[in-house]
């Protein structure tokens, strides 16, 4: 298959359990919960997205005709000065990465010595072979992928389906609440941070995930 990729870049994971870890972010184009066009936002299932996942025109983006070609492009981002033993890590994100991520691509990443993580909205079952599955449920979208390593819930979301208590019995190793960032409204964002922190204090299963990359100016 041909893979449509918005961008590929090396950064530090800013969120969740792997915060601070060097990783190649490989952002697939396209999502099944929003077109990515502002004119469609109000009618979309997921309405708070702050990611540009349209097209293949970002740094390192493009259409890749084979899994090997895409894995080569990802591997080229990993620092060749690394002698520290840090395991190469690729995070497949989007958009919704499980629209495109398949077994041959996971194999191709593994052949380059990469651990493979995915950040998904959970509406599509994950293929076998992934090393890290992070599910971030969105609004009323039906949750299909109900197990994994990390459940990272943007908080608060107004739909009853996304109350944290709905997820606590699922089979995840880690549960994170991530305050909803409201672009251009720091007061609203701060109130979300406070309410997420209060929830974690009252329900210690949950840990607070802040978007540290935004604090330090990384992409
Ligand atoms: S599911 Fe993720 S990528 Fe898709 S619109 Fe929502 S936040 Fe954006």
From TrEMBL:
[4Fe-4S] cluster binds at residues 31, 46, 49. Binds 1 [4Fe-4S] cluster. The cluster is coordinated with 3 cysteines and an exchangeable S-adenosyl-L-methionine. Binds 1 S-adenosyl-L-methionine per subunit. Substrate binds at residues 12-14, 27, 93, 219. It comes from the Bacteria. GO terms for biological process: tRNA queuosine(34) biosynthetic process. InterPro entries: 7-CO-7-deazaguanine_synth-like, Aldolase_TIM, QueE_Cx14CxxC, rSAM, rSAM_sf. Its EC number is 4.3.99.3. Pathway: Purine metabolism; 7-cyano-7-deazaguanine biosynthesis. It catalyses: 6-carboxy-5,6,7,8-tetrahydropterin + H(+) = 7-carboxy-7-carbaguanine + NH4(+). Its cofactor is Mg(2+); [4Fe-4S] cluster; S-adenosyl-L-methionine. Transmembrane segments: none annotated. Residues 46-142 form the Radical SAM core domain. Mg(2+) binds at residue 51. The keyword Signal does not apply. CDD domains: Radical_SAM (cd01335). The keyword Transcription does not apply. Keywords: 4Fe-4S, Iron, Iron-sulfur, Lyase, Magnesium, Metal-binding, Queuosine biosynthesis, S-adenosyl-L-methionine. Pfam families: Radical_SAM (PF04055). GO terms for molecular function: 4 iron, 4 sulfur cluster binding; carbon-nitrogen lyase activity; magnesium ion binding; S-adenosyl-L-methionine binding. It is an enzyme of class 4 (lyase). S-adenosyl-L-methionine binds at residues 48-50, 95, 136-138, 178-181. Catalyzes the complex heterocyclic radical-mediated conversion of 6-carboxy-5,6,7,8-tetrahydropterin (CPH4) to 7-carboxy-7-deazaguanine (CDG), a step common to the biosynthetic pathways of all 7-deazapurine-containing compounds. Belongs to the radical SAM superfamily. 7-carboxy-7-deazaguanine synthase family. Homodimer. This is 7-carboxy-7-deazaguanine synthase.
């Amino acid at each position: 298959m041909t893979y449509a990729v918005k961008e590929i870049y090396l950064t530090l994971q800013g969120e969740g359990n792997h915060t601070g870890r060097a990783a190649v972010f490989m952002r697939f184009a396209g999502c099944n919960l929003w077109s990515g066009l502002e004119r469609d936002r109000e009618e979309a299932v997921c309405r708070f997205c702050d990611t540009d996942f349209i097209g293949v025109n970002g740094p390192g983006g493009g259409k890749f005709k084979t899994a090997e070609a895409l894995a080569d492009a990802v591997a080229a981002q990993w620092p060749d000065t690394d002698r520290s033993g840090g395991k190469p890590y690729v995070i497949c994100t989007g958009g919704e990465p499980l629209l495109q991520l398949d077994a041959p691509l996971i194999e191709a990443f593994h052949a380059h010595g990469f651990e493979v993580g995915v950040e998904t909205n959970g509406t599509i079952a994950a293929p076998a072979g992934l090393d890290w599955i992070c599910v971030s449920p969105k609004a009323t979208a039906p949750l299909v992928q109900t197990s994994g390593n990390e459940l990272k819930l943007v908080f608060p979301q107004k739909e009853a389906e996304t109350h944290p208590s709905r997820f606590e019995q699922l089979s995840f190793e880690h549960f994170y609440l991530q305050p909803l960032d409201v672009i251009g409204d720091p007061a609203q964002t701060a109130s979300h941070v406070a309410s997420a922190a209060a929830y974690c204090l009252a329900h210690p299963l949950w840990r607070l995930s802040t978007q540290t990359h935004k604090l330090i100016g990384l992409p």
